[in-house]
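[job 4417] fold queue: 2 targets
>>> target A
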Amino acid sequence: MDGKNAQVFSVASVIVGLAGLAPQREINLFTLAVIAYLFVAVVSLWSVWVRPTRRPFHTDSLLDDYWEREAEFVKYALARELPEIYTHNQKIIDRKALSARLAIAATAVEVVAIGGMVIWVA
């Protein structure tokens, strides 16, 4: 998901640079494009901001930590922990997906504004 947001930000950067192709500046459209570009930048940063994901305790320490425990204890501990981990990690994934959708929508607004400057104002 982080890669997608970086790609959307790259596209938004190229699109805002296309404003230089416009023969004259339409200040309202250019302002809208810059605001959309800044929004894409903020949303992209929000997406890639480091948030720790949770891993089940068994991934790297199950054998060492629970060697002497009975199997029933380990089984119930895993069954209790896994839903909490899934819920925590799903919130992070949902946030990243939301930021990607917002960045794409803002880039579309930017495309319309820059396109208006280049095509219709010319």
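>>> target B
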Amino acid sequence: MKKKHIIPCLAMLALLFANISLAQRIRLEGTDNILAALRSSKFDTLLAALRKIEDKKIVGAIPILEERIWQQDPDMQEFFLRTLWKLGSPNTLALARAYIDTANGFSSIRPMPRDPLRMKVLAIDILFSYGDYATASLVFELLERDKPYVDPFARNLLASIARSVPNFSEKAKNLLVEISAK
């Protein structure tokens, strides 16, 4: 009687292991496809891959992102940088600083020049998350330059500056009050 039960049990175990193996292989193939999409030159494909990498927390993408970040246009560089930040890449701070340092060249990119100051401010919150407030003055520069328009990203950084940058704390608080009054 026991032999009759052993064969079906072994068959069930074999099926279970086959299904687990297939599921792992499909998941790995999915990851491979996502990582392969990082080699695309299409904006939509890259953006979709970055979202999947963030959602699935594919830390294996870090070396590829770091290798390819400077081959992208400025907008995609920022998206790569944000993904590296969310994945916890140890090089994020250095890459964010380098991105800000190279942003002045963004205005000469054709066919679609970018605003270097705005692009710098987009990366500043990454620096702030590491306690690096050296570029805080750029937030004020953007807000002053674009008056009466208030850049929402720059506005959101004012609270961090008010809390963490003594030299600019009062100025940030005053601007927040002024912006709120509008």
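[job 4417] complete. Note on B: Residues 75 and 89 are 19 Å apart (CA to CA).
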